[in-house]
Specification:
2 helices
Amino acid sequence: MGKNDLSSLKIKMEKKLPEETDTSLLGKKVGRPRKPVEERESEVISIKITPSELLALKNKAGMVPLGRFIKHHLRTETTLLQDD
């Protein structure tokens, strides 16, 4: 037998997609449910800051994205985003 002999190779015929009549996967939802429209964060604001302020902000945020850090700070440390 040579190095390129494929006579002992067995080929399996596997189906990759479920049959059309298979209902075991139908109706199952994967993942978490969607938030209602009222609770989604869809509004955008923009601010301009100096380079030194940006550097200080990056140092405080560390590995956390800046937008997420600012949002968390505004929600937890201030009452700016709370309804009166």
